[in-house]
Amino acid sequence: MLDKLFNPSPTIHKWDRFWVGFIPGMICPLLVFLFFYLIKYSNLSFPEYLNLVKNPTVLSPMLSLGAIINLFLFFPLMSFNYFNAGRGVIGATILYGIPIIITKFIL
User: Is 26 a domain residue?
Assistant: First the structure.
């Protein structure tokens, strides 16, 4: 039943599934978070880096950059007609968008 919900249109592609886009869409922003630590804040220990990131002025741009990185997943999926996987990337981006909006406008 959930497969019909997440993949409503039939497809000929084996990997054109919602989760194929959703899982990388959730992982790529986390990799950007770690890459940002290695490049810019490698002089800090990881717990100090986490305390620094708790600041909304640092957290919001970092989450935004992670969400923008999902575009590099989305557009190739669309060019290969993997529309259901593209929906998964959009779903993951929306889930990342909620904390971005909260940190930018509410905190």
Answer: no
